[in-house]
Structure formats: C-alpha cells, structure tokens
Write a structure and sequence with these properties.
heterodimer, A: 618 residues, alpha+beta, eight-stranded antiparallel sheet, 14 helices, 33 strands, 25% helix, globular, B: 383 residues, alpha/beta, pyruvate-formate lyase- activating enzyme, Arc Repressor Mutant, subunit A, 2 domains, nine-stranded mixed sheet, 21% strand
Chain lengths: 618, 383
C-alpha cells in the first residue's frame, strides 16, 4: 500500500531515537458543523497521507449516513507522518471524539487515549454546551488543549470575540489560539506545529506489563471484531495471546496495524502507539470500549481506569410494516449488533403491531441512526413506537421492577412508588434568553440548580430535569425559543420519585398498546388533549367514523373523532381515460400500503412516533 | 344482424373547441378554420377505412365526442357516418351519438345532423346559471343553453342527454336543485351529472391552488350527489351508473360498452382504442395526424397498456361495479374464466360486512351508500 511510509516498515525503531518522543496523540473536540471533518481532511492532505486521487470529502467519516447528513458522529482514527519545521518527522495520531451527548462515555475513552486535544470553535457561533462538556472532560484527564478558531473566512466571523470567549470561559491564552479556515486550508500548518510543540509525547514504559486501552471497535466480516487501541505500557506483538481484563476472555492476535489512513500491518505496537488489533473475535461485545488489553501470559496487575458498562437509556419498539419481515428484522438487528455492542433488543409482541423488537439505545440520535440503517441497509419498512425511558417501580408487595415499555405498566393499585431517571442539564445561552430557558425548564418539570455567567453575555444554566422530558421535544423547544442560540448538554443522574400515570389511547374503543405513554399526573390531561388532537389530524378519513379517546385507567380524559369519509369517487370514467383513472387508483392504493390496519382503523405508520411530538405542536 | 352479438363501438374524436373550458383536461385545440376541419374530416374517413379490418362483428354504436364535434358541418358528420356504414358491419339498432355544445348549433344544423343519421345528442349544458358557467369558463350563457335544448326537441331528437356539473364554487343545495328542475323542463331521456373534479393541469385547478376560488367540502358534495339520486328517481329516471340516469331503455349504449369492458375503436387524433387486450393512443398532434392520414402513411400509435388475463378481469370489475346493476357471476365466468365469488371471496366478504357491496342471486353490486366512496371498494380488487 503506502510503502514509502517510514513508520510501516520500521515502526519500532525511529531513526535511532526513542519512538515515544516523536508521537503525539490528540483528539478533536468540536460541535457538529464547526468543521471537524474538513479540518481532518486538510491535515490528511497537508501531511500527504492521501494522494489527490484517494482524497474525497469527509474522508474519515465512517458511515454513508454521516457523509450524507453532513454530520460526523465519529471519525475513524488516523496516523499521520508530519515533517515539522524542526526537520524531524513526527507521528500524529488523531483519535476522534463523537460529537453527540448520546456517546459521552465513548468521548471519555477517546480522550483517555490522548495527551492533548484540539478545541475547534466556529468563529461565528462561539462555544456550545456540548463542546464545553467535552473540554472539561479533557481537562479533567489533564490533556493539553490547543484552541482553534475555524471558519474565519465566513462573513459573520468574529474570531477576536470567540478567542476572548475561549479565554474567559476556559482559561486558554487568547494569544495562542490559532485562527484557521479549514475550508480554504489556511492555518493548517500552524495547527500541526502546535500539536508537535505543545502536546506532550506519551510516557509509557515499553518494557512494562502490557496495558492497551480499547477506545473503539467495529466488526469486519473477514477479520472479526477490530479494536482500535492505544498502548499505554508494554508492547503488543502479532501472535500474542491477549486477555480482555474486564470481560476476562483470551484471544490470539491475528493482525495488528496502524491506520495511515488505510489499514497497514505492523509487527508490534509499543507504549504510546495507536493502532488496531484483530484476533478472530466473533462478537464486538468482547472488545468493549474502555476495556484493557493485556497479555494472557503476563497479565497486568490492574486494568486502566475508567471502564464502564454502557447501558441504554432510551427504549422503543421497532416493528416491521409487513409482519412477515419479522425474521428479516431479527437478522438485521443481529448484524448491526455485531458492530454496536450498546444496541440491545429483545422480541416484543404488540396487539396492534404484531411481532417486533423492544430495543434499547444510548439516546435519540443513536435510535435514529439505528432505525435509519435498518431501513436503508436492510431494506426494511419499520414502525417505531414512542421512545421511553426506564422507570423503576416499587410495587406494594415490596418488589421492584423496571419498566421501559408503557404497555407493561402495572395496575396502579399495585404501585407503591415510581422513580424516573433525571439528568443534570447544562444549557448555554446568550443572557437575553435566560428567562425563556428557565420558563421552558419549569414547564418540563425541571428544578433550578444554579446559573453561571461564563462571559458578560454567555450564561450556563443548570437544571435538574426528568430525562423523559429531555427526550421528547426539549431540544426543539430550546432551539426555537432561543432562535437557535442555546446549546444543551446533559448527564444522567439518579432516579427520583415522580407521580406518573399511564396514558392509553383507544381507537373505536380498542386500546392500542403501541400508542400508550407515560405522563406526569399534572400534565396528563394536557398531554392527552394534544395527543388525540394530533392523531385526529394524521389519521385519514375512513369508511367509518373513528373515535379517538385518551384514558387513564378507565377514565376517558380526552376525545376526538375523525369523521367518516364522505367522498372518494371518480365521477367520470370513459373509454379515453380508463388507463389514467386506473393509475390514480393504483397511486391511492400505494398510499394505503403505508398504513397499518389496527382493528378496522388504518393508521399511518408514523403515528406511533407522534406520541412524542405533541408538545411541540401546540 | 342481431343486437346480441353487437358488442363493439367506434369512438370518433373531434379535438377542436372554440375555447378550452377552465375545468377541462381533455385533448382539444382552439381551431375553427374550415380548411382544417375539412382536412380533418377526410383524415377521419381515411382512418375509418383503413382500420375496418381490425375488428369483426357488428357495431352497436358510433360516438362522436370531443372537443366540440358540433363544430363540424352536418354534411361532414354525414360523410363520416356514411363511411362507417360503408366499411363496418352495423347492428340494426345502431346508436349514433354526438356531443353538441349550446351556441355552436342552430335549429338548421340540428336538423342536418338528424338527417346525417345522428340519433342521440348529448348536450353540454353543464349549468343553467350564468355565474356558474362563467366560473367554468364556458362560452355560452344559461339562456343559450335553454334555447339550444328547445331546438334539439324541435329538430325531432327523441333521445338526448343533458350534461350537468355539480360541486361548483359557491353552489348550494338549492341552486343545484334549480339546475336539475330546469333540465326537467326539456324532458330529456338521459341525464349525466358530474362532480367537478379538476386535473392539476387545468386553469381552474390553478385558481383553487392560488386560493382565488374554493371548492365545496366533501360533506356538501356528498349531499348534492345523494340529493340528485333522490330527485331524479322521483322524476322517473333510472340511476344506472355512478353519474348517469336514463328513462328505461335509453341508457347510453356506447358508454355501456366501456363499463362492460367491451372493445372499441378510437378514431381521430388523440383517441384511445381498446382491442385485443391492449389500450392504445392515436397520434396526438393534429397536423401530423392529418398529414399521415392524407398521405396514406401508417397511423402512429402509443401503447398505453397490454393487459394480462387477471388485469382484464380486474378492469372488468372496476368498470362493471360502476353500473348499479353490478356484475353477474355467470357472465363474468364465461368471459374471463374466473369465478368472481371465489377469486375475490375475502374482498367481497369484507366489503359486504361493511355494507358497501351487495350480493344477491349471483350478482354483486355497490350499495347506494358506497357510490360516492366507490374508489375504496375498487382499490381492493386491484393487485
């Protein structure tokens, strides 16, 4: 492949110098759209990692979905050889952080694999809450932070203002912040020089016991699970028998290598280096992010710190439109799971929607990505029920259960108390919008924690909020009420006791289990009204009138009806236009296929998601 | 020659109008040049002659539609009709229908048409109210419509139809009933009432989209329709198709052929034929059509669809259920080799349970309440 890369042939002996001195491991921390992928593209080009022919935009974005949406969840790691102004060649390992709150644990592990981070801020947008959370995390891990102001070529750019803000909020020296335009390629060399000059080289003992951190993994159909690792101490060789310290499983290494950016095999990876390993591991669940790789023959005394089991926080039911696609959906989930150990699922049966799966996700973006991939890559047509958090319910018989599916909600008579997950929400907003944001948080059952002026104009507001409220439409509400200026980050905290009730929806008197949802007692009526109203709008007229009712237990608290269809006729049908009229009917029939028949009622497939959207529709 | 074997028709398209109406999406051109009309007549006669061999068996009907066929001179109509007689076998009770628009014909013309052999007229009245006619972009007023109808009777036509449109912007139940009552004054043998349904391409559809006119809501349209059914039943008309009513024995034989899924030849530019499991469209450009026909060059056609036996059966159901008499099981089995009650058992049962289809003595038909939502039933018979 790229034989001229000195590192692929002699990775362990770097021109007679100590290899570690020449390594710089760094992350990029940036808000979505602040230019992370473009900056990475420019660094690839500048260091000559890719020829012009190999180059394409957003090169390191792993999924088509990312490239298409223009958002980057996470970049592939890459090793760059950079000949610096001091005449030496350095190995720069870029390890990306996923730019979304759903993946904050992964962010922490990626940062743990680095000694420094580039903080990229859009010159017209300023710092966003999510970025801030990640920078704080990097600071906690003692990473060297290099400030970069991007998009200085844009008309609305205010690099000086943003620099000042970075100084005020994060304590960076504004004189050292590098102004760049990744799009135009300005300032790239300065960034690379700063990486070399400021970020410390790794300092691990090459002769010590092997400890390598897994910061990402994915499934390759030919090689099995591939783990991206950072060697902390010791040395890893092809053929070594390794042990995953948390899972306790042993595997024999079949391949190790580096990504430059294509996979390039090497004989060994030493302390400080970043690369990948393959060991015929059949399941990515055995190479969990955060686990420590050590040698089976000489295991380390203790693993690297910071490992955590990631657990889903959001659940929803996924059902095939066509019931006969159930097995196809199962296969597709199995395949996705190979690549995504945080995705969990189990079969679920719904009276309304038939057989499907109850799936758990790290957050809404994760949910959305999985759903879209299932539909796109596995050619499935799916219905998703409204997302739900996990409720802990203490029953009157003193047993405790977890419920993440509203249709499994126990009889209220049996409930002693219900606990729901809360988050600490950190909202960053220009000071003009403080009142609006606080109002929104109150509406969403939030309780105020504190507020901090980061600069005279930027405020960080902290609220304790139920996760369920954040999941529904909080972010949209926040964006629209602050004209897009607010940004949000949150961390899941403890469960708190809440007065919650199950809200059922009946269509023509029959409860539709897939439309049930959990609501706070004080908001149930309002929610029910919104829900039936919305369903009235989206359920098309049918041959019979459709009664839509919302109830809590046996009590109906809201009702609407969709009047019976009164007209669906082709007034004229003669010899000259039979073909055309038939096409109209065919088109109409196609539309019907997007409906789900529930009892005698045809419900559009999107209806089941709308349970979550009602509040934003008022 | 007996009528029982006469189950084919010829449709002749005359694609010329004084002016295109605002709701119309049929193929027509604003041409009244007598030279072109004469060339077109000769072209139609040429096509009739050439295609004579493509069908066998006697004709039950000839229908001159448009466009505005009454723009042709009576003697041109006569030549066309004669050409049919010269080249095709015809039933002894051949129906010769022609569409005529008010204000395009006078008493003299009408007498001429009668002499030419036309034995059924369909008068495109649409409305007797000036304001409604204006909305539709028609060229005539209410009084002209009435005067043309008087002439039709005077000319001796004892089989004529009045076309009316309902669902017009601003229409009310009483203004519609007024239209129906006025039509009764002429004692037509046949009435067609059509709901205004606009194709996107029409001027009126654009006005609706722009919000300058508003269509009626479904409830009102539905009650206009069912009021019509009651009104005309009271007046002694038999409701035989979703939008058509006639005195006993005066159903339009030509249109019945369509709904009975029988074959027909379409003559003239832009006309559609249905023969031998294919639907096809004639050359749409009137100049090219005339050139090809007069130079004896082959007729250009475009095949719209070639149907499988199952599609033929589905078509026959969708069309046949438009007739209030519905579909006879035996007859259907003889023609399509399919036992409809078996083949579509689930669909029929479902519709029957919901009260949209009636089944009796091996005949299925739409229930009265299903007429105005009949697409919901038809769709279920499509694959």
């Amino acid at each position: 492949m790229k034989g001229d890369h000195l590192l692929t042939s002699s990775a362990n002996n770097f021109g007679g110098f100590n290899l570690q001195d020449r390594i710089r491991n760094f992350s990029i921390i940036a808000h979505i759209d602040h230019g992370k992928s473009t900056l990475a593209d420019r660094m690839l080009q500048f260091t000559g990692a890719l020829s012009a022919r190999e180059m394409r935009d957003q090169f390191l974005d792993k999924m088509d979905l990312e490239r298409e949406k223009g958002i980057t969840i996470k970049l592939q790691p890459v090793r760059l050889n950079y000949k610096a102004r001091d005449g030496q060649t350095y190995i720069l390992n870029l390890i990306d952080t996923p730019g979304h709150v759903d993946f904050s644990y992964e962010v922490s592990r990626s940062l743990a694999a680095c000694e420094g981070a580039l903080l990229v801020v859009d010159a017209s947008q300023g710092i966003e809450a999510q970025t801030l959370a990640n920078v704080y995390m990097a600071m906690d891990l003692n990473l060297e932070i290099i400030g970069v102001v991007n998009k200085i070529d844009l008309p609305g750019a205010e690099p000086e203002v943003v620099k000042q803000e970075m100084e005020d909020v994060l304590g960076l020296d504004k004189l050292e912040i590098i102004p760049i335009s990744a799009k135009l390629g300005t300032g790239i060399e300065e960034v690379l020089e700063a990486i070399v000059a400021k970020i410390p080289a790794p300092r691990g003992d090459e002769k010590g016991e092997l400890r390598a951190l897994i910061f990402d993994s994915y499934f390759d159909p030919y090689k099995g699970a591939i783990s991206y690792i950072r060697v902390d101490s010791g040395e890893l060789r092809k053929g070594d028998m390794i042990r995953m310290m948390y899972s306790g499983k042993d595997f024999e290494i079949t391949e190790i290598g580096v990504l430059s950016p294509f996979m390039t095999t090497v004989e060994s990876l030493k302390a400080g280096e970043v690369g990948y390993l393959a060991a015929a591991i059949k399941n990515v669940a055995d190479t969990k992010v955060g686990d420590t790789v050590t040698l089976a023959s000489r295991p380390a005394s203790k693993p690297l710190e910071g490992y955590k089991e990631v657990k889903p926080v959001v659940y929803c039911g996924l059902f095939p439109m066509d019931n006969s696609d159930f097995e196809k959906l199962r296969d597709a989930l199995e395949k996705l799971k190979l690549n995504d150990s945080s995705l969990i699922y189990e079969p679920e049966s719904s009276d309304a929607l038939g057989l499907g799966f109850r799936c758990g996700f790290l957050g809404l973006l994760h949910l959305e990505i999985v759903r879209e991939r299932l539909e796109r890559e596995y050619d499935l047509s799916l219905m998703a029920t409204a997302p739900s958090v996990i409720y802990r319910i203490l029953l009157t018989d003193k047993t405790e259960i977890s419920v993440q599916n509203p249709s499994r909600w126990p009889d209220p008579q049996r409930i002693d108390k219900v606990m729901e997950p809360y988050v600490k929400a950190n909202i960053m907003v220009p000071n003009d919008y403080v009142g609006t944001v606080m109002e929104l948080c109150q509406e969403k059952r939030g309780s105020f924690i504190n507020m901090e002026y980061l600069t005279p104009h930027r405020v960080m507001i902290n609220y304790n909020l139920p996760l369920a409220e954040i999941l529904f439409d909080f972010f949209d509400g926040l964006k629209s009420r602050t004209r897009g200026y607010a940004s949000l980050d949150y961390e899941v905290r403890d469960d708190e006791v809440s007065e919650l009730v199950k809200l059922d929806i009946m269509l023509n008197g029959e409860t539709v289990d897939a439309l049930s949802s959990i609501a706070h007692k004080d908001k149930a009526y309002y929610r029910a009204r919104g829900l039936v109203e919305r369903l009235r709008k989206i359920i098309p007229r049918q041959m019979y009138e459709v009664a839509i009712q919302a109830s809590i237990g046996n009590r109906i608290i809201a009702r609407e009806s969709v009047k019976a269809m009164r007209k669906d006729v082709l007034a004229k049908c003669y010899g000259g236009d039979i073909t055309r009229k038939k096409k109209l009917l065919e088109k109409q029939k196609e539309g019907k296929k997007r409906m789900k028949q529930i009892g005698h009622v045809e419900v559009p497939r999107d209806a089941f998601m709308t349970v979550m959207e009602i509040d934003s529709d008022k | 020659m007996t009528n029982s074997s006469a189950n084919m028709g010829i449709y002749i398209h005359i694609p010329f109008c004084l002016h295109k109406c605002d709701y119309c999406d049929f193929y027509s051109l604003p041409i009244t040049d007598p030279v072109i009309l004469e060339k077109y007549t000769r072209s139609v006669i040429s096509e009739l002659r050439r295609r004579a061999s493509s069908i066998s068996g006697p004709l039950a009907s000839i229908y001159l539609g448009g466009g505005t066929p009454s723009l042709l001179l009576p003697q041109q109509v006569e030549r066309i009709v004669n050409s049919v007689f010269e080249n095709y076998q015809t039933s002894s009770e051949l129906e010769i229908s022609m569409e005529a628009n008010p204000a395009t014909v006078n008493l003299e013309d009408l007498k001429g048409l009668k002499c030419a052999g036309v034995n059924r007229l369909s008068v495109g009245v649409q409305s007797f109210a000036d304001i409604e006619l204006k909305t539709l972009g028609r060229m005539h007023g209410g009084h002209e419509a009435e005067s043309t109808l008087r002439d039709v009777v005077k000319a001796g036509f004892n089989n004529f139809n009045i076309d009316l449109i309902y669902g017009l912007p601003g229409q009310t139940l009483s203004s519609w009933q007024e239209n129906l009552s006025l039509a009764m004054n002429f004692n037509p043998q046949h009435i067609s009432t059509y709901l205004l349904q606009l194709d996107e391409s029409t001027r009126m559809a654009r006005k609706v989209k722009a919000g300058t006119i508003n269509l009626l809501d479904d409830e009102l349209e539905s009650s206009l329709y069912y009021t019509t059914l009651d009104f005309l039943a009271e007046e002694g008309y038999y409701h035989y198709e979703i939008s058509n009513f006639a005195r006993t024995g005066y159903e339009c034989r030509h249109n019945l052929l369509y709904w009975q899924a029988q074959e027909y030849l379409g003559i003239g530019c832009g006309a559609v034929s249905y023969i031998n499991r294919k639907r096809f469209l004639n050359q749409k450009n009137v100049n090219h059509y005339i050139e090809d026909m007069l130079a004896d060059r082959p007729l250009q056609i475009e095949i719209l669809e070639t149907m499988t036996p199952r599609q033929l059966a589905a078509d026959a159901i969708i069309l046949g259920l438009r007739l209030t008499g519905g579909i006879k099981r035996e007859e259907f089995r003889d023609r399509f080799g399919i036992d409809i009650m078996e083949e579509y058992r689930d669909v029929i049962k479902d519709c029957q349970t919901k009260g949209f289809l009636e089944v009796e003595n091996d005949r299925i038909y739409l229930s009265k309440r299903a007429y105005f939502i009949s697409n919901q039933v038809f769709m279920q018979f499509m694959d």
